[in-house]
Amino acid sequence: MRTIINVYIRTKKPVETYPGVYEYAYIKKEKVRATMSNLLVTLTDSSSVNLQSSSKTKMSYVISNCNPDTAKRISYISYNGDLYEVSSSDPYPPRMSSVLGDIAKMKEEELEIYTG
Known about the structure:
- By secondary structure, the chain is mainly beta.
- Helix content is 5%, strand content 63%.
- It contains one helix and eight strands, in the order βββββαβββ.
- The strands form two sheets. Strands 1-4-5-8-7-6 form a six-stranded antiparallel β-barrel.
- The chain is globular and about 60 Å long.
């Protein structure tokens, strides 16, 4: 399924957000086209009665400067009005693949967006 997402990449070094205050900020990549798929993991034990399965959402998208350093710094993805933490990201140039984690504890408005 295709969708539109926003990707938040943490800066390499802390930036001065307010005079004298240095924090990590985020670079926002807006309106990124992504392909969404579900990864299904099934856990079983010796009896077929106790079957547990869980699924994770995987996003595949294209961003510029797709390298392993950038993949490590992808922190959040905004999808369908919710902000999700990213569990893992892998670069497959020119594509990037990210697995979504839990819904983030902070809102999109609370993120420091770096514009410099």
